[in-house]
Every structure is written in structure tokens, then in C-alpha cells.
């Protein structure tokens, strides 16, 4: 009788254990950890360096992690470091200013006996199509032209001068790759920017694979540039594989790569050689067409300095253009990953906090900000504000700590809403559709050769706010093969309790 009773107790305990094991195996956090364990054995990641961390934003409690202190290359996730600090250091309502000024005097006949200056304040939005019409070149040029008319300036006896001295002359970080610098996404930030510092050229592909692609230049303002075209015809559907080689302030550009067979007027964007000079030239032509003539050729403060001259004459302001507020600018910076905006923001931080509009000063100020929040920056390396540099290094722990700190900052809502939203916007638009993460999880994405990264926020099924960071370097599979593995991790993070 006792043996029968003991047997029944054994069965009860056994089935209870099975039930608990089933519950544990189905626990979302266990599933997440199990998935991480599977990735450790994935051939795609055998030679890779990668890290995952998830924590609660309220308490900082780590829910799961792997290699959380390994510093890795984050690509565009670096924009979290820059924009998060900027919103606190500069304020959400910060605006860039561009001034129209003059030197000398204006006589009764409407002659300006002096120069007309377009004095930049680093505004990266002028001419950008990512905002409303208030930042279009025509709108701003008319704003400045109206100021000339109101002050009865009909004739400029000097030059139209572009003053870009608000930032350092070198627009690019020293560690950016040569194959990036001539392309639109690596245009760099100048003290005076226009049209996102980019230009567009067009190609007509050949008939056969490997045949030359014909270059068309439709913007007459680019005629002074010399394009050495070595672009060939590539496979159908191959996309834009053109690389533009060239450095700032020089007009020679070498074009390499391919465009898809059968394509005509295939557009490719490059970085302007000298945006301040281009700005002055366009504006001078604009006012000329409205009857205001400048006697001397356009100039830039850089060329004046290189000629060994100085220009410290006192100026008077005619008009002041203000950019959209910073909280608006960080939206395309993070959602569309606009490198120029991130670089302009970083250099502006340097200018305001360190009195020098340089990459170095901006980095120093940003690092000081994060250090002041008691983040251990050991191993952290920051070479730029946008993530293009392969010298940038950050751990997932550092990213999660930054994200947690930002939830306590005044500008948290502005920051979080600038991150791509799962299933809706930016690099997350095509991910996690039809899941609990859609319209919930927000993450800045990063993509470069052999780099894929995600960092942001999500509310889990228990209603807790989580922050997370995933960074993968040097994997051996394609991005399209790695992406669903990462998407599965993100969904499991959203499903935790």
C-alpha cells in the first residue's frame, strides 16, 4: 500500500517537474538566452565579434547579455552618442543661424562700398528636402534678397563672400575611408552648407555587360569639375555600385564601379568640392538675375586666408536665417541616418562648449558629457559624430547605459521619437511587421561593410521599458542572411516579461 502511495507521489512530482520545465522552456527570457546560445554556434558568426545586452531602463537591471564589455565598431548607431548628448547640451529648441552681413557703407544711390557676406553658423539644413519649404535655397535666397532691397542695396562694389569660419576647414574626419569621401554620404560638415553638400550626375548604361556607361552632367554649375569616368555596365538589378573618388576643395573626380544594364538617367550623388564657394556663386547669380550686381568675383574666407590676406573689418547684419529646431533635425539624423547632420551637430557642440568648431572639440565635449553621467568610457573611442569612421569603438553596456540615462533627461521624448520605429520608419520600416514589436520597438540602425548594429527601446509584454544594444562585426555571411537572425532576437526582446 505504501509503495503504491509513494509511486503516486513520484508521478505527481515527475509531472509537476515536466510542467515547470515546459514553462521554463517557453519563458521568453529563456528563449532569448537560448537563441543567443544558438548564435554562438552559428557558422556565420564563427569568426565574428558580437555582443548583445538588454536591461530595464528604470532599474538598470541586466536581463541578458553576451560580450557586453567588448568594444566594437557601431557604424551609424554612433549617432545615438552624438544626438543624445546634443539634445541635452544644446537643448531641443537650439537653432543654427546664418547671417547676411556687409562691410563698408551704403551710399544714397544704393551702392554698397564694401563686401556682402554670407556668414555660416554650421546649419546643415539649407537646401535640404527633408524639411518644409522654409529651408529651400529659393526661400532663403529670397529672404536675403529682400533684405538687400529693404536696405536699398542695388550694386555691390566689392564681392559676395562666403564665410565658413564657424567650423574648421577640414570637413571630414581623418579616419574616413578614401572610397567614402567623394560620395554624398561622406560630404562632411562645413561652416556654410548647401543642398546637403551634394550634387547629382547621371549615367546611361551600355548595351552589354562591361561596356562603358555614358556620363551625363545636367547641372551647369558642375561644368568646372573634371570627371574621369571609368564606370561600366553591370548586371540588371545590381543597383548603384558607383564609387566617386576625390578630396574636398579639388575639382577632379574619378568615377569607378557599375550601373545596371538597361538603365538611362541613372542618378548617382557625390559630395560637393567646396560648398561655401558653391553657396556664394549660386546666391550671386540669384541676385544678379534680380538686378543686383557685384563688381568682383565671389570669394570664401578660406581662399582669402590662403592668399595671406586678412578680413577682420567690422560687419553689420542685414538678415538672419534660423534653421528648424534641433529636435526636428535629429529626426532625419537618426531615422534617415544623415551623416552631414550628425557631423554638423558634433562640430557645433565643439564650437559652443569648447569655442572651436572642430571634430576634436566636439568629441571632447561629448565624451565629457557622458563621463559626467558616470558612464565608464574605458575602451570607448569616438572619431566622428556619425559613425563612418572604422576607429569608433563602443560596448553594448555603454550603449545601454547611455540609453538608460537619456530616459531621465529633459529631451528624452524628442530623442526617443527620433529613432526608427519598427514596421514604420527608417531602417526598421521593413522589420517586425505584424508582431508585438511593430509600432513599439524603436532602434537606431547601423550598417557598413561587415558591421550590423541596433540599439534602442521597447516596452515588453509586462509593460516594462527596456533598452537594448546588438552589435555584430566581421561576420562571414551576407547582410540579408544575418538580418533575420537579428530580427528574431529583437522580437524575443519585445516578448520578455
Please give a structural write-up:
By secondary structure, the chain is of the alpha/beta class. Helices cover 32% and strands 22% of the residues. It has 13 helices and 21 strands. It has helices at 2-26, 28-40, 78-89, 137-150, 178-181, 275-289, 301-306, 326-335, 339-354, 359-372, 396-406, 412-416, 479-494; strands spanning 49-56, 62-66, 97-103, 105-106, 111-113, 116-119, 155-156, 160-163, 198-204, 214-216, 226-229, 232-234, 241-245, 252-260, 266-271, 293-294, 299-300, 315-322, 442-448, 451-459, 465-473. The strands form five sheets. It has a five-stranded antiparallel sheet with strand order 2-1-21-20-19, with helices on both faces. Strand 19 and strand 20 form a beta hairpin. The model is unreliable at 13-23 (pLDDT under 50).
The class by helix and strand makeup works out as alpha/beta
Discrete helix count: 13
Ends: how far apart? 45 Å
Content of β-strand: 15-25%
Unreliably modeled segments: 13-23
Biggest β-sheet: strands ordered side by side in the sheet: 2-1-21-20-19
Major sheet characteristics: 5 strands, antiparallel
Number of strands: 21
Which percent range fits the helix content? 25-40%
Tell me the Rg in angstroms. Answer: 27 Å
Shape: globular
Average pLDDT level: 94
